[in-house]
Amino acid sequence: MAAISGLLRECLTGSYEESVGILSKILGPENASETGMFTNGYWLMPVAHFVETYGLDHPHISLGFIEEITKRHTGEYAVRPYLTSHKEMTVARCLEWTQSRNSHVRRLASEGMRPRLPWAKKLQIFIDDPSPLVDVLDRLKDDESGYVRKSVANATNDILKDNYLVGMELLDRWSIDPTSNRKWAIKHALRNQVKRKDERALDLLASIRTP
Q1: Would you give the end-to-end CA distance of the chain in angstroms?
Q2: Closest to 76 (Cα-Cα) out of 21, 29, 32, 123
Q3: Contact predicate 71/105, CB 8 Å
Q4: pLDDT per residue over 143-183, tens digit each?
Q5: pLDDT less than 50: residues of the chain
Q6: From CA 5, how far away is CA 51, in angstroms rounded?
Q7: Element (H, E) at 105
């Protein structure tokens, strides 16, 4: 992936903006199904890596292109350097993405901000202060898409690993008159706590269990 991305950099000799314009023409149709990155659009991995590696000096162009890549593949890895280098701008874009009609874009908001996303470097900024991620998760907790809710639950699970009280307070708040979609997200977020027989987690789950 990195090798192909590097070759794209060598072959696309124009400006970064011109390179993005060329690459945008090969993205293909949007992914109509909710599938993982190794099924539909997986061949776009080097394109996402190109943006992740070479676009940091052009955040506005890059974030827009990451959104388009996500509709076909995923931008969850490509967006992470932007969260570190252009935090306010990128967090603001993630909040916008939570309102997208496209479930892949909504998922990008939560999955891209996960502090401990598998196969990616930790986002220490959201371990030190998870509040921006909490704002995103609050907007997606009742999402109609199971694909998005799974990401929300996994991101909440990440918060619990480093900021247990913050994570539990968030789930406590969600447990007040929860929708069925939110109940699923809460249960999935607490799966590790259930394995550890965490009493607070077990009590919370008991409180939302359907009689």
Answers
A1: 50
A2: 123
A3: yes
A4: 999 999 999 999 999 999 999 999 999 999 999 999 999 99
A5: 211
A6: 9
A7: helix 103-112
